Amino acid sequence: MADTLLLVANLTHPCLENGKKLLPFFQKAGPHPEEKIKIVVNRYQKNSPIPLPEAEKQLNKKVFWTIPNDFQALTEAAKLGRLCSIWR
Q1: Which of 47, 62, 45 is nearest to 10 (CA)?
Q2: Among residues 25, 86, 21, 14, which one has the least CA distance to residue 5?
Q3: CB-based contacts of 25: which residues, under 8 Å, 6+ apart?
Q4: Are 38 and 7 spatial neighbours (Cβ–Cβ below 8 Å)?
Q5: pLDDT per position as a tens digit, 27-84
Q6: Residue 64 parent element (H or E)
Q7: pLDDT per residue over 15-43, tens digit each?
Q8: Is 51 helix (H, G, I), strand (E, B) or coil?
Q9: How far apart are CA 72 and CA 52, in angstroms?
Q10: How far apart are CA 9 and CA 38, in angstroms?
């Protein structure tokens, strides 16, 4: 009944392998139209050992969104009890 299913993954080999296993599960559990399933990359870094195109190739799906890896901003926001500036 969901409008969108988000698969959140890091750009690591174990995480992408798990993502490859979850995508067919989403199809079986639904079945959900392909356009409802979106890939979100968490803790994204431009200099990642696994570039976005490689992750998309492994998952056979385009990345919908990336969340940057900004540890310093996140730590500061947590200390202050506020939203991190990357989410505004």
Answers
A1: 45
A2: 25
A3: none
A4: yes
A5: 777 766 778 889 999 999 988 999 999 999 999 999 999 998 877 777 777 788 776 6
A6: strand 63-68
A7: 999 999 998 888 777 766 778 889 999 99
A8: coil
A9: 23
A10: 11
**b/e map of 38-61 (b: 16 or more CB within 10 Å)?**
ebebebbeeebeeebeebeebbeb
| Contact predicate 52/63, CB 8 Å | yes
The first and second tokens of residue 34, run together, are 């392909």
Alpha-carbon distance of 54 to 45, in angstroms, equals 14
The model carries a pTM of: 0.78
Asked if 7 contacts 37 with a C-beta cutoff of 8 angstroms, the reply is: yes
Tell me the C-alpha to C-alpha distance, in Å, between residue 69 and each of 7, 13, 24. Answer: 17, 17, 28
- Rounded Cα–Cα distance for residues 62 and 67 (Å): 15
